[in-house]
Specification:
It contains four helices and no strands. It is mainly alpha-helical and 101 residues long.
């Protein structure tokens, strides 16, 4: 068998082309193929967004801790008021939500 004849054979190239095409389809659309890749990319984007949110919240909490450590009077007053405390002579009014009646 001559190697030139084999390389010029249209049947050989047709079989190789079909085989390559079917292999590509199998890779792209198999269980771990393109759909799985898209799913993982979406999960990664969701995780990155959540990470940014958590980093932002961590910075806020760090600033609050630093202010508490420095005994920031404005922060101390805001925390006390959240717990229902008031200054002498002040009256605290509490409003109920209309749905709670």
């Amino acid at each position: 068998m001559n190697a030139n004849w084999l390389l010029k054979s249209s049947t050989l190239w047709g079989v190789l082309g079909a085989s390559g095409f079917l292999s590509l389809l199998a890779v792209l659309f198999s269980q771990g193929g393109l759909p799985e890749l898209r799913k993982r990319e979406a999960e990664l984007q969701t995780a990155r967004t959540r990470l940014l949110e958590l980093n932002h919240r961590n910075r806020e909490l760090l600033e609050e801790v630093q202010r508490l450590a420095a005994k920031d009077p404005e922060l101390m007053e805001a925390l006390a008021r959240r717990q229902g405390y008031a200054r002498k002579g002040e009256t605290v009014y509490t409003f109920r939500n209309s749905r709670e009646r």
